[in-house]
Write a structure and sequence with these properties.
The complex is a heterodimer of chains A (111) and B (116).
Chain A: E1 10-14, E2 19-24, E3 32-38, E4 45-51, E5 56-58, E6 62-67, E7 72-77, E8 86-93, E9 99-101, E10 105-110
Parallel strand pairs in A: 1-10
Antiparallel strand pairs in A: 2-7, 3-4, 3-8, 5-6, 6-7, 8-9, 8-10
Chain B: E1 5-7, E2 10-13, E3 19-24, E4 31-37, E5 44-50, E6 53-56, E7 65-68, E8 75-79, E9 88-95, E10 106-107, E11 111-115
Parallel strand pairs in B: 2-11
Antiparallel strand pairs in B: 1-3, 3-8, 4-5, 4-9, 5-6, 7-8, 9-10, 9-11
Classes of the chains: A mainly beta (111), B mainly beta (116).
């Protein structure tokens, strides 16, 4: 038989626009969060991380926001480019270091 | 710097057959992980090694899956016998950190398994 995967949430943006990808995490005890980018046929690639004692962290063209009150994480990508098209996963660590990945969001950038 | 190496990239087998995947982590990385990624889902941790010791194998289906990292460097993941639901990409990752500081994980490109 053929396995059927879940349908990923998708976000479609115009090239040059800003993108915001959201993630709800599950455990209020999680103390470290990472965003990964996964292109087709490749493994996840680290983008940016944030610890629970921070609410914002900026990288090159990317910003991660953490709202612990509502257990929400977001990834903002400025001036989105076609090369940003991929599936984006948030991941949380429980105390002890085990990473738990979310479902993922597929970002599509229209030229 | 060489990344995480995995082989084979693709494998097709029939149910009840066995398969093995190999991973060579980044040199010097003490921690090695095997993840299972089913189509459309995020990776799920199967097993985590710290050097050659198992840190977490709570989600490894031990009746059919086994993994080893005998010399604390490369690792193999075996499935015997395979089931249809084992069709997935098996990702290996490594990191410098110890079990309480996950740090940045570096992933290989994965081994895609199809069970018919």
């Amino acid at each position: 038989g053929e396995s059927v995967g879940l349908h990923l949430p998708t976000l479609s943006v115009q090239e040059g626009d800003n993108s915001i990808i959201n993630c709800a995490y599950s455990n209020s005890a999680s103390d470290y969060f990472i965003w990964y980018k996964q292109e087709s046929g490749k493994g996840p690639q680290f983008i940016i991380d944030i610890r629970s004692n921070m609410d914002k962290r900026q990288g090159q063209r990317v910003t991660v926001l953490l709202n612990k009150t509502v257990k929400h994480l977001s990834l903002q990508i400025a001036a989105t480019q076609p090369g940003d098209s991929a599936v984006y996963f948030c991941a949380e660590t429980l105390q002890g270091g085990k990473l738990i990945f979310g479902q993922g969001t597929e970002l599509s950038v229209k030229p | 710097e060489a990344g995480v190496a995995q082989s084979p990239r693709y494998k097709i087998i029939e149910k009840r057959q066995s398969v093995a995947f190999w991973c060579n982590p980044i040199s010097g990385h003490a921690t090695l992980y095997w993840y299972q990624q089913i189509l459309g889902q995020g990776p799920k941790l199967l097993i985590q090694f710290q050097n050659n010791g198992v840190v977490d194998d709570s989600q490894l289906p031990k009746d059919r899956f086994s993994a080893e990292r005998l010399k604390g460097v490369d690792s193999t993941l075996k499935i015997q016998p395979a089931k249809l639901e084992d069709s997935a990409v098996y990702l290996c990752a490594s990191s410098q950190g110890d079990r309480r500081n996950t740090g940045e994980l570096f992933f290989g490109e994965g081994s895609r398994l199809t069970v018919l």
